[in-house]
Amino acid sequence: MQRLLISASAAVILLIAGCTARPEKPITLTAGQVGEISMETGRSVQDVLFDEGNYAMFIHFGLYSKLEGEWKGKAYYGNAEWIMSPAQAGIPVDEYMAEAATFNPSKFDAEKIVALAKEAGMKYIVITSKHHEGFAMFDSDACSFNITDATPFGRDIIGELSEACHRNGLGIGFYYSQFQDWTAPGGGYGPTRDADGKAVSFDDYFWKKCVPQVEEITTRYGDVQLIWFDTPDVMGPEYSKILVDIVRKNQPHALVSSRVGNGMGDYETLGDMEVPTVNHPGRWEGIDVTQVGWGYSKADHRWKTPGYIVRTLVGTIARGGTFMMNVGPTKDGEIAPEAAAALSKSGEWISRHPKVIYRAEASPWGHALPWGDAVVNDGRLYLIVTDWPSDGKLLVPGIRNGIRSARIDGGKKLKFRKDGTWLEIEVPCRAPEDYAGVIELTPEGELDIDATPAVIPGSRNLISTELASSVSNTAITRTGWMENYGEWKNKGMTMMNQSSMTTWAIEFPAPGYYDINLEYRSGDRHEWRVTVDGCQSIEHSCGASDIFSLHPLGWIRIDAPGIHEIDVQVLTGPEDDAELSGLYIDPVML
Ligand code: H79
After folding, report:
1. In 3D, which of 169, 172, 191, 171 has the Cα closest to residue 180?
2. Which residues are within 8 A (CB) of 199 and not within 5 positions of it... i.e. 6 or more apart?
3. What is the per-residue pLDDT across 191-246, written as a single tens digit (0 to 9) for each?
4. Which sign does the torsion angle of CA 542, 548, 552, 555 carry?
5. Is 182 in the pocket of ligand 1 (CB under 6 A)?
6. Quick one: what percent of the chain has pLDDT higher than 90?
7. CA 486–ligand 1 middle distance (angstroms)
8. Which among 227, 307, 439, 448 is placed 20 to 30 Å from 161, CA to CA?
9. Three-state secondary structure string covering 280-328
C-alpha cells in the first residue's frame, strides 16, 4: 500500500522511511502568528472567513460516495460516509478497498461546485481530503489508496477544487480524519496488522500515513485557510501538537479546528447540527447537513429546505457563530439537484439580505425570539421573522432605545409605536417573501436591550430551561442524543427532584390567563407545580414521556403586564427521573 516516491518534502521521505522519526526541532508557534498575518486583501483569515464570511460549504466526498449509502442492495440510513463501519454495513477492508477500482466520479466539475457555493452565498469551502475510511481524495505519495492512483478517474479532486476556489476568490479548507483510519494498519479502528501479518501500532499509522498526508495537503495546494481535523478520540496531546505544528509551519495563516483534540485549535466546532440556545462566546462554528448524513445517500429523501437553511444559518450567526452547510456529491461527482436547488434558493434570500449574514453580530437578546431572531450590523438591528404575524402587528420585546426608523429590509418604511420597552411595528398581513421576512430598525443611540424572555401573543412561546433566571438544588445542563443513525439532537434541561426548583423571569404583555405546558422527558408520571410570583400556584399530574415533549399543566392568571417570576417544581414521582427542558406559554384568548 505504501509507495516510496520522491516527495517535495524531505521530512515526508524521512518519515516514510523511518516510520517513527520525529521532527528534529519542535516547531513552536509565536504568539499572534495566526490571525494577525494578512492574506492578499490585507486582512486576517479569521476576519475574512469567520467575521465577515460567516457561511461556508462543507463537502463530504470520498470512496463512500460511490456506494451512495447502499451495500449489496441494502440501504443503510444515516451517515453514508460510515457505510464501511460495523455500525453500518460492516464491509471487510479488502472488499471496501477494491471498490476504488470502479470509482469514477467523471462528472465532478470544481468550477460548477464553486459557482454553486457562490450562488448559495458561501465564502469558503471545506472538503474531506481523507475521511475515516482512509481514502485520500488527492494524489498522495504517502499512501496509494487515493483518488489518482487507485481509481480509473485518476484526477486530483483536492487540487481541482483548490484551484477553482483560488481562481474565484473563495477560501479553501481541508478536512482530515487524523485518528480514525479503517483501512491503514494501525489507524484508529483500522487493521491491527500490516500486509505481512506483523502487529502495528497507532504510532506506525501516524508517522507513515497521517503526518506525511497532512504535510502533503498543507504544501501542495497553495494557500489553505483552514485544516479541519475530526474525531481525535483517544489520541494524546503529543499527536495533536505535531499536527498543529505542521499546519503552522506550512500554512501559517490557516486556522485549525478544535477537533484536532486535546484543547488545541484556533476555534471551536460545536456538536454536529447544534445551534446553541443562548449566545455562545469565542470564535466558533456550527455545522449541518443537507441530507440526514454527510456522504451522499441515495435512499435519503429528507432534504433540508431553503427555509431550514435560512433559519439554521441565521440562528447560528445570531448566537455569535459562523456556519457550514454540507453537501455530499453523488458517485458521479455531482451535487444532487435537491441540495443544489435548496442552496441556491436560500442564496437568493441571502443576496437580498447581506447585512443579516456578512459581518453580522450576535443578537443583543442573547437568544432567539418567539417569531424568529435578530442580528446587529453597523449599529442597526435586523429582525428575521420566520413566523410572520397574521394580524399585521409585530411585537418586539425589551427595546429600551427610542427607534428612529423601521422598514422592510430593502423595502418600504413601516409605522411603529413604543409602549414601555415593547415596540409594536405595523407590518403587512402577509410575509413579504418566502423563508423569512426581514425588518431593519435604526435605533437612537447605542442599542440597549432587556433580554428577559417575553411571551408574544400569536407566537410559539417555548421558553427554554437554558433561559431560567435561577435554579435551586439542580443545575442547567445540556443533553445530546442520537435520534436516528447520525442524527444528533440536543437540549438544555434541569433534572427535577422534589427539592428542586427552576425559576424563570418572564415578561408578559397583558393581564389575563396563560395556558402553561411543560416540556420534559420522564420515565414515570409526576405531579408538577407552577407558582406565579411566589404565591398563586397550580398543580397537576402529568404523563410520562420517553422523548422531550409538551405536557399541559393548566392556566395561570397574570394580573398586570410586566415581568413575573414563574417557579416550576415536581411534587411526587421517582427521583432523578424528570428532565425539564422548557415552558410553553400560550395566552388564552377570551
Ligand atoms: O464527518 C462527519 C461525520 O462522519 C464525523 N464528523 C462529521 C463532521 C463523525 N465521526 N464520528 N461521528 C461523527 C460521531 C459518530 C457516531 C456514531 Fe454512528 C454513532 C458512530 C457509530 C454510532 C453514526 C451512526 C455513524 C454510524 C452510525
Report:
1. 191
2. 192, 193
3. 999 999 999 999 999 999 999 999 999 999 999 999 999 999 999 999 999 999 99
4. positive
5. no
6. 88
7. 6
8. 307
9. CCCCEEEEEECCCCCCCCCCCCCCCCHHHHHHHHHHHHHCCCEEEEEEC
As a whole number, the mean pLDDT across the chain is: 91
The interaxial angle of helices 211-219 and 10-18, nearest 10 deg, is 170
Q: How confident is the model at residue 16 (pLDDT cuts 50, 70, 90)?
A: very low
**For residue 38, pLDDT beyond 60:** no
> Do 371 and 387 meet the contact criterion of CB atoms below 8 Å apart?
yes
Q: What is the 3-state secondary structure (H, E, C) of 134-185?
A: CCECCCCCCCCCECCCCCCCCCCHHHHHHHHHHHHCCEEEEEEECCECCCCC
Give SS3 for 51: helix
Say which DSSP state 245 is in.
H
Q: Examine the pLDDT at 124 and tell me if it is beyond 80.
A: yes
Would the CB of 82 count as within 6 Å of ligand 1?
yes
Amino acid letter at 549? S
- Pick from 77, 82, 88, 325 the residue to mutate for probing ligand 1's pocket: most ligand atoms within 8 Å of its CB: 82
In degrees, to the nearest 5, what angle opens at C-alpha 481 toward C-alphas 475 and 483?
145
Q: Give this prediction's pTM.
A: 0.91
C-alpha cell at 465: 430551561
**Contact call for residues 520 and 569 (beta carbons, < 8 A):** no
Q: What's the CA gap between 52 and 361, in Å, rounded?
A: 10
- Span 481-508, mean pLDDT? 93
Helix, strand, or coil here: 589? coil
- List residues bridging with 519 in a β-sheet: 550, 582
Band the pLDDT of 484: cuts 50, 70, 90: confident
The grid coordinates of residue 565 equal 417570576
Which among 169, 117, 172, 110 is positioned nearest to 346, based on CA atoms? Answer: 117
In this structure, the number of other CB atoms found within 10 A of the CB of residue 149 comes to 15
